[in-house]
User: Fold these one by one.
Assistant:
Number 1:
Amino acid sequence: MSEKFERHRQPWKPEELAKLRTLAAKGKGLKEIAKALNRSEESTKDRARDDNIGIAKLR
Protein backbone atom coordinates (compact mmCIF):
# COMPACT_ATOMS: atom_id res chain seq x y z
CA MET A 1 0.00 0.00 0.00
CA SER A 2 1.42 3.36 -0.89
CA GLU A 3 0.87 6.44 1.23
CA LYS A 4 -0.79 9.49 -0.23
CA PHE A 5 1.17 12.70 0.16
CA GLU A 6 -0.70 15.97 0.23
CA ARG A 7 2.29 17.92 -1.14
CA HIS A 8 2.99 15.53 -4.03
CA ARG A 9 4.84 17.37 -6.84
CA GLN A 10 4.27 20.75 -5.19
CA PRO A 11 7.11 23.27 -4.93
CA TRP A 12 8.91 23.45 -1.61
CA LYS A 13 7.89 26.40 0.55
CA PRO A 14 10.51 28.32 2.58
CA GLU A 15 8.83 27.13 5.80
CA GLU A 16 9.22 23.50 4.71
CA LEU A 17 12.90 24.02 3.94
CA ALA A 18 13.42 25.61 7.34
CA LYS A 19 11.68 22.65 9.01
CA LEU A 20 13.79 20.22 6.97
CA ARG A 21 16.99 21.97 8.12
CA THR A 22 15.81 22.06 11.75
CA LEU A 23 14.81 18.40 11.89
CA ALA A 24 18.01 17.28 10.13
CA ALA A 25 20.09 19.35 12.57
CA LYS A 26 18.32 17.59 15.45
CA GLY A 27 19.48 14.25 14.03
CA LYS A 28 16.06 12.99 12.95
CA GLY A 29 15.86 10.18 10.41
CA LEU A 30 14.66 10.44 6.83
CA LYS A 31 11.39 8.63 7.51
CA GLU A 32 10.53 10.87 10.44
CA ILE A 33 11.41 14.07 8.55
CA ALA A 34 9.42 13.04 5.48
CA LYS A 35 6.38 12.25 7.62
CA ALA A 36 6.63 15.58 9.46
CA LEU A 37 6.76 17.42 6.13
CA ASN A 38 4.03 15.27 4.56
CA ARG A 39 6.46 14.49 1.70
CA SER A 40 7.75 11.23 0.30
CA GLU A 41 11.09 9.96 1.55
CA GLU A 42 12.47 10.20 -1.98
CA SER A 43 11.41 13.84 -2.36
CA THR A 44 12.81 14.70 1.06
CA LYS A 45 16.10 12.95 0.36
CA ASP A 46 16.46 14.65 -3.04
CA ARG A 47 15.76 18.10 -1.61
CA ALA A 48 18.19 17.57 1.25
CA ARG A 49 20.87 16.49 -1.24
CA ASP A 50 20.17 19.50 -3.50
CA ASP A 51 20.51 21.90 -0.55
CA ASN A 52 23.51 20.08 1.00
CA ILE A 53 21.55 19.20 4.14
CA GLY A 54 22.89 16.12 5.89
CA ILE A 55 20.33 13.67 7.23
CA ALA A 56 21.68 11.47 10.02
CA LYS A 57 19.80 8.27 9.31
CA LEU A 58 19.21 7.68 5.62
CA ARG A 59 17.23 4.43 5.69
Number 2:
Amino acid sequence: MSTPPAPSPARFDLLDAARLVAILLMLQGHTLEAFVAPSAMDWTRLRWELWGQLRGLTAPLFLLISGAAAVLATRRGPDGQVPRALLGRRLRTALKVLAIGYLLVFPAAHLADLRWVSPAGWQAFLQVNILQLNAVALLGLTALLALTRSARTQGAWSLGLGLAILLAAPWVAILPWFAWLPEGLAAYLSYAHGSLFPIFPSAAFMFLGATLGAGLLESPGPERLGRFRLAVLGAGLTCLAFSLVAPHLPEPPLPPLEAYQAGWGPVFHRLGFAFLALGVLAALAQAWPGATRALAPLGRKSLAIYVVHLALIYGTPWTPGLMGPALHSLGGTQGVRLVPLVALATFAVVLAWDRLRNASSRIRALAHATAACALGYALLF
Protein backbone atom coordinates (compact mmCIF):
# COMPACT_ATOMS: atom_id res chain seq x y z
CA MET A 1 0.00 0.00 0.00
CA SER A 2 3.01 2.28 0.39
CA THR A 3 3.83 4.54 -2.55
CA PRO A 4 7.37 3.96 -3.89
CA PRO A 5 9.49 6.62 -5.55
CA ALA A 6 9.09 7.18 -9.27
CA PRO A 7 10.28 3.92 -10.83
CA SER A 8 12.53 3.07 -13.70
CA PRO A 9 10.66 1.04 -16.36
CA ALA A 10 12.74 -2.10 -15.99
CA ARG A 11 12.37 -2.27 -12.24
CA PHE A 12 9.00 -0.96 -11.19
CA ASP A 13 6.48 -0.73 -14.02
CA LEU A 14 5.49 -4.40 -13.89
CA LEU A 15 4.76 -4.29 -10.17
CA ASP A 16 2.85 -1.02 -10.38
CA ALA A 17 0.74 -2.29 -13.28
CA ALA A 18 0.14 -5.56 -11.41
CA ARG A 19 -0.88 -3.58 -8.34
CA LEU A 20 -3.48 -1.78 -10.45
CA VAL A 21 -4.83 -5.16 -11.60
CA ALA A 22 -5.04 -6.30 -7.97
CA ILE A 23 -6.84 -3.14 -6.83
CA LEU A 24 -9.36 -3.48 -9.68
CA LEU A 25 -10.01 -7.07 -8.59
CA MET A 26 -10.64 -5.77 -5.07
CA LEU A 27 -12.96 -3.06 -6.38
CA GLN A 28 -15.15 -5.45 -8.36
CA GLY A 29 -15.15 -7.93 -5.49
CA HIS A 30 -16.29 -5.36 -2.93
CA THR A 31 -18.92 -3.98 -5.32
CA LEU A 32 -20.53 -7.33 -6.07
CA GLU A 33 -20.29 -8.47 -2.47
CA ALA A 34 -21.98 -5.28 -1.22
CA PHE A 35 -24.81 -4.99 -3.74
CA VAL A 36 -25.68 -8.47 -5.05
CA ALA A 37 -28.23 -10.42 -3.03
CA PRO A 38 -26.81 -13.64 -1.54
CA SER A 39 -29.67 -15.54 -3.14
CA ALA A 40 -28.42 -14.40 -6.57
CA MET A 41 -24.98 -15.90 -5.93
CA ASP A 42 -25.50 -19.44 -7.11
CA TRP A 43 -22.32 -21.22 -6.00
CA THR A 44 -23.25 -24.29 -8.04
CA ARG A 45 -22.68 -22.26 -11.22
CA LEU A 46 -19.21 -21.99 -12.68
CA ARG A 47 -19.15 -18.19 -12.94
CA TRP A 48 -19.79 -17.71 -9.22
CA GLU A 49 -17.34 -20.46 -8.30
CA LEU A 50 -14.68 -18.73 -10.42
CA TRP A 51 -15.55 -15.39 -8.83
CA GLY A 52 -15.09 -16.90 -5.38
CA GLN A 53 -11.69 -18.27 -6.36
CA LEU A 54 -10.74 -14.88 -7.77
CA ARG A 55 -11.71 -13.21 -4.49
CA GLY A 56 -9.46 -15.64 -2.66
CA LEU A 57 -6.30 -14.81 -4.60
CA THR A 58 -6.75 -11.00 -4.67
CA ALA A 59 -5.32 -10.28 -1.22
CA PRO A 60 -2.28 -12.61 -1.59
CA LEU A 61 -1.57 -11.05 -4.99
CA PHE A 62 -1.79 -7.52 -3.62
CA LEU A 63 0.39 -8.25 -0.59
CA LEU A 64 3.02 -10.05 -2.67
CA ILE A 65 3.28 -6.99 -4.90
CA SER A 66 3.40 -4.61 -1.95
CA GLY A 67 6.26 -6.52 -0.34
CA ALA A 68 8.27 -6.67 -3.56
CA ALA A 69 7.71 -2.97 -4.30
CA ALA A 70 8.74 -1.93 -0.78
CA VAL A 71 12.09 -3.70 -1.15
CA LEU A 72 12.72 -2.51 -4.69
CA ALA A 73 12.21 1.08 -3.55
CA THR A 74 14.92 0.68 -0.90
CA ARG A 75 18.39 2.06 -1.42
CA ARG A 76 21.23 1.00 0.84
CA GLY A 77 24.38 2.96 1.58
CA PRO A 78 27.94 1.75 0.87
CA ASP A 79 27.98 -0.06 4.22
CA GLY A 80 24.71 -1.84 3.43
CA GLN A 81 22.65 0.21 5.85
CA VAL A 82 19.30 1.69 4.88
CA PRO A 83 19.37 5.49 5.47
CA ARG A 84 17.55 6.62 8.58
CA ALA A 85 15.54 9.13 6.56
CA LEU A 86 14.12 6.32 4.41
CA LEU A 87 13.34 4.21 7.46
CA GLY A 88 11.55 7.20 8.97
CA ARG A 89 9.47 7.66 5.83
CA ARG A 90 8.53 3.97 5.89
CA LEU A 91 7.53 4.26 9.54
CA ARG A 92 5.34 7.29 8.83
CA THR A 93 3.77 5.55 5.82
CA ALA A 94 2.91 2.49 7.91
CA LEU A 95 1.36 4.61 10.66
CA LYS A 96 -0.62 6.61 8.09
CA VAL A 97 -2.01 3.43 6.52
CA LEU A 98 -2.85 2.09 9.99
CA ALA A 99 -4.68 5.32 10.90
CA ILE A 100 -6.65 5.32 7.64
CA GLY A 101 -7.64 1.70 8.18
CA TYR A 102 -9.15 2.48 11.57
CA LEU A 103 -10.69 5.81 10.52
CA LEU A 104 -12.66 4.10 7.74
CA VAL A 105 -14.48 2.05 10.39
CA PHE A 106 -14.47 4.59 13.24
CA PRO A 107 -17.28 3.53 15.57
CA ALA A 108 -18.78 7.00 16.12
CA ALA A 109 -19.27 10.19 14.14
CA HIS A 110 -17.88 12.34 16.99
CA LEU A 111 -15.32 11.71 19.71
CA ALA A 112 -17.87 12.62 22.35
CA ASP A 113 -20.08 9.75 21.16
CA LEU A 114 -17.45 7.09 21.83
CA ARG A 115 -18.81 6.58 25.34
CA TRP A 116 -22.04 5.23 23.80
CA VAL A 117 -20.34 2.65 21.57
CA SER A 118 -21.42 -0.88 22.44
CA PRO A 119 -18.96 -3.74 23.01
CA ALA A 120 -20.04 -5.14 19.62
CA GLY A 121 -19.23 -1.77 18.04
CA TRP A 122 -15.73 -1.72 19.55
CA GLN A 123 -15.20 -5.30 18.45
CA ALA A 124 -16.12 -4.40 14.87
CA PHE A 125 -13.83 -1.35 14.99
CA LEU A 126 -10.84 -3.41 16.16
CA GLN A 127 -11.18 -6.13 13.52
CA VAL A 128 -8.09 -6.36 11.32
CA ASN A 129 -8.64 -5.67 7.63
CA ILE A 130 -6.09 -5.45 4.85
CA LEU A 131 -5.00 -1.87 5.62
CA GLN A 132 -4.19 -2.69 9.25
CA LEU A 133 -2.42 -5.89 8.20
CA ASN A 134 -0.48 -4.07 5.49
CA ALA A 135 0.69 -1.43 7.98
CA VAL A 136 1.87 -3.98 10.54
CA ALA A 137 3.61 -6.10 7.90
CA LEU A 138 5.31 -2.97 6.53
CA LEU A 139 6.54 -2.18 10.05
CA GLY A 140 8.01 -5.69 10.30
CA LEU A 141 9.59 -5.42 6.88
CA THR A 142 11.07 -2.01 7.74
CA ALA A 143 12.60 -3.46 10.89
CA LEU A 144 14.07 -6.29 8.81
CA LEU A 145 15.55 -3.84 6.33
CA ALA A 146 17.11 -1.90 9.20
CA LEU A 147 18.65 -5.03 10.75
CA THR A 148 20.16 -6.50 7.57
CA ARG A 149 23.10 -5.26 5.52
CA SER A 150 22.32 -6.65 2.07
CA ALA A 151 19.34 -7.46 -0.14
CA ARG A 152 20.39 -11.11 -0.19
CA THR A 153 20.35 -11.39 3.61
CA GLN A 154 17.07 -9.53 3.81
CA GLY A 155 15.57 -11.84 1.17
CA ALA A 156 16.67 -14.94 3.07
CA TRP A 157 15.18 -13.68 6.33
CA SER A 158 11.95 -12.64 4.57
CA LEU A 159 11.63 -16.09 3.02
CA GLY A 160 12.20 -17.79 6.38
CA LEU A 161 9.71 -15.56 8.20
CA GLY A 162 7.11 -15.92 5.45
CA LEU A 163 7.26 -19.70 5.46
CA ALA A 164 7.29 -19.83 9.28
CA ILE A 165 4.14 -17.67 9.44
CA LEU A 166 2.36 -19.84 6.87
CA LEU A 167 3.25 -23.10 8.58
CA ALA A 168 2.37 -21.79 12.05
CA ALA A 169 -0.99 -20.33 10.96
CA PRO A 170 -3.25 -23.35 11.76
CA TRP A 171 -1.69 -23.75 15.19
CA VAL A 172 -1.99 -20.04 15.97
CA ALA A 173 -5.65 -20.04 14.83
CA ILE A 174 -6.71 -22.57 17.49
CA LEU A 175 -5.32 -20.62 20.47
CA PRO A 176 -7.69 -18.55 22.69
CA TRP A 177 -5.99 -15.21 22.08
CA PHE A 178 -8.95 -13.14 23.28
CA ALA A 179 -8.69 -14.77 26.70
CA TRP A 180 -5.02 -13.78 26.94
CA LEU A 181 -4.72 -10.40 25.21
CA PRO A 182 -6.71 -7.17 24.87
CA GLU A 183 -9.23 -7.09 22.02
CA GLY A 184 -7.16 -4.80 19.81
CA LEU A 185 -4.08 -7.04 19.99
CA ALA A 186 -5.82 -10.41 19.87
CA ALA A 187 -7.59 -9.32 16.67
CA TYR A 188 -4.20 -9.42 14.91
CA LEU A 189 -3.80 -13.09 15.78
CA SER A 190 -7.27 -14.61 15.54
CA TYR A 191 -10.28 -14.86 13.22
CA ALA A 192 -12.64 -15.47 16.15
CA HIS A 193 -14.03 -11.92 16.40
CA GLY A 194 -14.29 -11.16 12.72
CA SER A 195 -10.80 -10.17 11.59
CA LEU A 196 -10.30 -10.88 7.90
CA PHE A 197 -6.51 -10.56 7.71
CA PRO A 198 -4.71 -11.51 10.94
CA ILE A 199 -0.92 -11.73 10.85
CA PHE A 200 -1.04 -15.53 10.58
CA PRO A 201 -1.10 -16.26 7.66
CA SER A 202 -1.66 -12.94 5.83
CA ALA A 203 1.61 -11.18 6.74
CA ALA A 204 3.48 -14.07 5.12
CA PHE A 205 2.38 -12.92 1.67
CA MET A 206 4.12 -9.58 2.12
CA PHE A 207 7.34 -11.17 3.41
CA LEU A 208 7.38 -13.59 0.49
CA GLY A 209 6.86 -10.64 -1.83
CA ALA A 210 9.84 -8.96 -0.17
CA THR A 211 11.88 -12.06 -1.05
CA LEU A 212 10.89 -11.55 -4.68
CA GLY A 213 11.92 -7.91 -4.46
CA ALA A 214 15.31 -8.83 -3.05
CA GLY A 215 15.81 -11.31 -5.88
CA LEU A 216 15.00 -8.64 -8.43
CA LEU A 217 17.57 -6.29 -6.90
CA GLU A 218 20.17 -9.02 -7.37
CA SER A 219 19.22 -9.56 -11.04
CA PRO A 220 20.86 -7.68 -13.94
CA GLY A 221 18.51 -5.09 -15.46
CA PRO A 222 18.04 -6.67 -18.91
CA GLU A 223 17.27 -10.06 -17.38
CA ARG A 224 15.08 -8.86 -14.55
CA LEU A 225 11.62 -9.47 -16.02
CA GLY A 226 12.55 -12.86 -17.45
CA ARG A 227 14.00 -14.07 -14.15
CA PHE A 228 11.02 -12.69 -12.25
CA ARG A 229 8.62 -14.57 -14.51
CA LEU A 230 10.49 -17.85 -14.03
CA ALA A 231 10.73 -17.31 -10.26
CA VAL A 232 7.03 -16.68 -9.72
CA LEU A 233 5.96 -19.51 -12.01
CA GLY A 234 8.27 -21.89 -10.14
CA ALA A 235 7.00 -20.62 -6.78
CA GLY A 236 3.40 -20.98 -7.95
CA LEU A 237 3.84 -24.58 -9.05
CA THR A 238 5.66 -25.42 -5.81
CA CYS A 239 2.87 -23.93 -3.70
CA LEU A 240 0.18 -25.75 -5.66
CA ALA A 241 2.05 -29.02 -5.28
CA PHE A 242 2.31 -28.48 -1.53
CA SER A 243 -1.41 -27.65 -1.36
CA LEU A 244 -2.15 -31.13 -2.72
CA VAL A 245 0.08 -32.78 -0.13
CA ALA A 246 -0.99 -30.58 2.79
CA PRO A 247 -4.33 -32.35 3.56
CA HIS A 248 -2.36 -35.49 4.35
CA LEU A 249 -0.08 -33.73 6.85
CA PRO A 250 -0.92 -33.43 10.56
CA GLU A 251 -2.46 -30.09 11.49
CA PRO A 252 -5.03 -29.12 14.13
CA PRO A 253 -8.74 -29.46 13.33
CA LEU A 254 -10.23 -26.11 12.36
CA PRO A 255 -13.82 -24.91 11.76
CA PRO A 256 -14.64 -24.83 8.03
CA LEU A 257 -14.17 -21.06 7.64
CA GLU A 258 -10.89 -20.98 9.55
CA ALA A 259 -9.68 -24.06 7.71
CA TYR A 260 -10.12 -22.12 4.46
CA GLN A 261 -8.41 -19.04 5.89
CA ALA A 262 -5.53 -20.62 7.82
CA GLY A 263 -5.26 -24.29 6.74
CA TRP A 264 -2.17 -25.21 4.77
CA GLY A 265 -4.00 -26.63 1.78
CA PRO A 266 -6.28 -23.64 1.01
CA VAL A 267 -3.63 -21.03 1.88
CA PHE A 268 -0.95 -22.56 -0.36
CA HIS A 269 -3.61 -23.06 -3.05
CA ARG A 270 -4.41 -19.32 -3.05
CA LEU A 271 -0.76 -18.36 -2.82
CA GLY A 272 0.14 -20.65 -5.71
CA PHE A 273 -2.43 -19.06 -8.00
CA ALA A 274 -1.33 -15.58 -6.91
CA PHE A 275 2.24 -16.43 -7.97
CA LEU A 276 0.96 -17.82 -11.28
CA ALA A 277 -1.07 -14.63 -11.85
CA LEU A 278 2.12 -12.62 -11.35
CA GLY A 279 3.84 -14.85 -13.89
CA VAL A 280 1.09 -14.21 -16.45
CA LEU A 281 1.32 -10.45 -15.80
CA ALA A 282 5.11 -10.60 -16.23
CA ALA A 283 4.68 -12.34 -19.58
CA LEU A 284 2.19 -9.68 -20.66
CA ALA A 285 4.60 -6.96 -19.53
CA GLN A 286 7.31 -8.48 -21.71
CA ALA A 287 4.93 -8.68 -24.68
CA TRP A 288 3.42 -5.18 -24.26
CA PRO A 289 5.88 -2.98 -22.35
CA GLY A 290 4.10 0.17 -23.58
CA ALA A 291 0.80 -0.87 -22.00
CA THR A 292 2.62 -1.71 -18.77
CA ARG A 293 4.23 1.73 -18.65
CA ALA A 294 0.86 3.36 -19.32
CA LEU A 295 -0.88 1.50 -16.47
CA ALA A 296 1.93 1.85 -13.92
CA PRO A 297 1.16 5.45 -12.80
CA LEU A 298 -2.36 4.47 -11.74
CA GLY A 299 -0.95 1.49 -9.84
CA ARG A 300 1.10 3.91 -7.72
CA LYS A 301 -2.16 5.42 -6.47
CA SER A 302 -3.33 2.12 -4.99
CA LEU A 303 -3.89 3.45 -1.47
CA ALA A 304 -6.07 6.33 -2.71
CA ILE A 305 -8.03 4.03 -5.04
CA TYR A 306 -8.62 1.55 -2.24
CA VAL A 307 -9.80 4.17 0.25
CA VAL A 308 -12.02 6.08 -2.21
CA HIS A 309 -13.81 3.01 -3.56
CA LEU A 310 -14.57 1.79 -0.03
CA ALA A 311 -15.86 5.24 0.94
CA LEU A 312 -18.04 5.36 -2.17
CA ILE A 313 -19.52 1.91 -1.62
CA TYR A 314 -19.85 1.69 2.17
CA GLY A 315 -19.62 5.34 3.21
CA THR A 316 -17.72 6.58 6.27
CA PRO A 317 -18.85 7.62 9.73
CA TRP A 318 -19.34 11.13 8.26
CA THR A 319 -20.50 10.51 4.69
CA PRO A 320 -23.15 8.22 3.16
CA GLY A 321 -22.17 5.52 0.69
CA LEU A 322 -23.83 4.22 -2.43
CA MET A 323 -24.82 1.03 -0.68
CA GLY A 324 -27.69 2.39 1.45
CA PRO A 325 -30.96 0.58 0.69
CA ALA A 326 -29.34 -1.30 -2.19
CA LEU A 327 -27.33 -3.47 0.22
CA HIS A 328 -27.51 -7.09 -0.93
CA SER A 329 -30.58 -6.38 -3.04
CA LEU A 330 -29.46 -6.54 -6.69
CA GLY A 331 -29.30 -9.38 -9.15
CA GLY A 332 -26.01 -10.60 -10.55
CA THR A 333 -26.37 -8.77 -13.87
CA GLN A 334 -27.25 -5.51 -12.11
CA GLY A 335 -24.23 -5.87 -9.84
CA VAL A 336 -21.89 -6.46 -12.77
CA ARG A 337 -23.22 -3.34 -14.50
CA LEU A 338 -22.53 -1.34 -11.34
CA VAL A 339 -18.81 -2.28 -11.25
CA PRO A 340 -17.64 0.05 -14.08
CA LEU A 341 -19.70 2.90 -12.61
CA VAL A 342 -18.00 2.51 -9.22
CA ALA A 343 -14.62 2.25 -10.94
CA LEU A 344 -15.21 5.40 -13.01
CA ALA A 345 -16.37 7.37 -9.97
CA THR A 346 -13.37 6.15 -7.96
CA PHE A 347 -10.81 7.08 -10.59
CA ALA A 348 -12.50 10.46 -11.18
CA VAL A 349 -12.17 11.35 -7.48
CA VAL A 350 -8.59 10.06 -7.23
CA LEU A 351 -7.39 11.85 -10.36
CA ALA A 352 -9.15 15.10 -9.40
CA TRP A 353 -7.54 15.03 -5.95
CA ASP A 354 -4.17 14.21 -7.48
CA ARG A 355 -4.49 17.08 -9.96
CA LEU A 356 -5.37 19.45 -7.14
CA ARG A 357 -2.39 18.36 -5.05
CA ASN A 358 0.03 18.65 -7.95
CA ALA A 359 -1.11 22.10 -9.07
CA SER A 360 1.49 23.78 -6.83
CA SER A 361 3.18 23.23 -3.49
CA ARG A 362 0.98 25.94 -1.95
CA ILE A 363 -2.23 24.33 -3.20
CA ARG A 364 -1.00 20.93 -2.03
CA ALA A 365 -0.37 22.27 1.48
CA LEU A 366 -3.77 23.98 1.46
CA ALA A 367 -5.52 20.79 0.31
CA HIS A 368 -3.86 18.73 3.05
CA ALA A 369 -4.63 21.36 5.69
CA THR A 370 -8.26 21.56 4.55
CA ALA A 371 -8.66 17.77 4.70
CA ALA A 372 -7.10 17.66 8.18
CA CYS A 373 -9.32 20.50 9.44
CA ALA A 374 -12.42 18.86 7.97
CA LEU A 375 -11.60 15.59 9.72
CA GLY A 376 -10.89 17.38 13.00
CA TYR A 377 -14.17 19.29 12.76
CA ALA A 378 -16.09 16.09 12.01
CA LEU A 379 -14.60 14.34 15.02
CA LEU A 380 -15.19 17.24 17.40
CA PHE A 381 -18.51 18.65 16.22
